[in-house]
Amino acid sequence: MSMISECAPAKINLALHVTGRRADGYHLLESLVTFTDTGDQLSFSPASTDGFSVSGRFAGNVPREGNAGGDNLVVKARDMLRSVLAGAGLAAPPVHIHLEKNLPVASGIGGGSADAAATLRGVMRLWEIPAGAVDLPTLALRLGADVPMCLAGTPLIARGIGEAIEPLRGLPSFAMVLANPLQPVSTPDVFQALESKANAPLSLPGELIEAAAWIAAIGNLRNDLEAPASRLVAEIAVISGLLAGQGATLVRMSGSGATCFGIFSDSAQAKAAEAALLSIRPDWYFQATTTISGAQACRA
Asked: Residues in domain GHMP kinase N-terminal (predicted)?
């Protein structure tokens, strides 16, 4: 066995509709999701004992291993998969996992969930476990509602609490700037502040081919969590205004925030906007990126 690498691309909720609430308190969602070519990077190496290390801009915000993994989804994913494999009589030897944390933590772009999904993929490869030996989507859901879609890693529509996934063909690639004021926003608090828990479902026209038509259709959708999140964190509205001021054709918050995205006409405009925004607020997070249109691909 040699070192295995996996990337954990940022998850972008191009739209997120809250359509109801289950009896157990989980909210029902319908979300149009894509992924970027930038993200966290993980590596997996054989070791004499389990280990976890972290580097990158946001390394200081990552929970370390601690007892039973604490809030570290990478460690939880490793341990949960190992437990399932042990029950099936399959070997899961010690592994050292290194996480290069390039995405802001708890920022509405699936950072921890993407890392967990990448961990499931990576240790499966390192341990040479046959694909059919484990029900990975079910295991992913046990780790969190966003992990199954991050495990899929391609454009999709997610429904239910995130577990019902429909691959989406034809979604084009978009030049984009991700923007985050690096202010914490509590997902439970955002849902608590949501005035209506039963909103209209997501609806897309049947035939969408050109990128402009997709952007127009996405513009007619919404993120139901953006208004309550903006009431809790005023910087969300500020950062949305900054993106719009740079000429973004569509600006919206992703997930429960606080990351917003702006779609630009091409990568050159996105990179120019990133540079301009960093000159205005060098203390905030701005990243020009491109969303994927097919198979998963990201760079560290």
From this structure: 72-153
CATH, range 175-290: 3.30.70.890
CA-nearest of 219, 211, 239 to 108 is 239
Q: Measured between alpha carbons, how far is 280 from 156 in angstroms, rounded to an integer? A: 34
241 is in an annotated binding site: no
Other Cβ atoms less than 10 A from the Cβ of 45: the count is: 16
255 is in an annotated binding site: no
The answer to the question of whether 110 is labelled as a binding residue is yes
Q: Are 166 and 107 in contact (CB under 8 A)?
A: no
For the annotated catalytic residues, the residue numbers are 11, 146
Query: What token pair was written down for 57?
Result: 């801009």
pTM: 0.94
Tens-place pLDDT, residues 39-83: 999 999 999 999 999 999 999 989 876 444 457 999 999 999 999
Domains of the chain, residue spans: 4-167, 175-290
Distance in angstroms (rounded) separating the CA atoms of residues 142 and 297? 25
Q: Out of 2.40.30.170, 3.30.230.10, 2.30.30.100, 3.40.50.300, select the CATH number for domain 4-167.
A: 3.30.230.10
CA separation for the pair 81, 75 (Å, rounded): 10
Fold: same for 4-167 and 175-290: no
CA 56 from chain center: how many Å? 17
Q: CA 108 from chain center: how many Å?
A: 7
